[in-house]
Amino acid sequence: QVRLVESGGGLVQPGGSLRLSCAASGIIFPINAMSWYRQAPGNQRELVATITSGVTSGGSTNYAESVKGRFSISRNNAKNTLYLQMNSLKPEDTAVYYCNANINKFGSRADYWGQGTQVTVSS
Fold it and tell me: Could you tell me the CA-to-CA distances from 30 to 55, 56, 64, 108, 112 in Å, in that order?
């Protein structure tokens, strides 16, 4: 069974930094991409950052315009862990952050999600 577990969230002041981690296990199919999403109260879940598999794409990262230049997505394949380094945090970044794995399962794309970790940016 696929399991994604996020950690690293918390309360930080504006301008501060946090690093989120996503520990993955049980993934036996090729991974197309892994992403971080976030959802603030009353809002839809939005894509924050994506890192693609180097097997098919050569490896690349993409960011939402609202976080570009401040956030950085990375992964440690040996540890099966995805990271999101968040710098210069703003109150608008407050949300529950979710880890996502897009998997090529029997020729079809399938998404798996973690339980989320709360990030609160406030003075």
Answer: 9, 10, 25, 11, 13
Residues of the chain with pLDDT under 50: none
Dihedral, CA of residue 95, residue 90, residue 33 and residue 75, to nearest 10 = -110
Percentage, residues of the chain above pLDDT 90: 75
Give the integer Cα–Cα distance in Å for 121 and 28. 36
Q: CA–CA separation, 30 vs 20, rounded Å?
A: 23
**DSSP bridge pairs for 39:** 96
- 62 Cα distance to chain centroid: 11
CA distances from 105 to 19, 30, 36, 108, 117 (A): 29, 7, 20, 5, 26
pLDDT at 32: 86
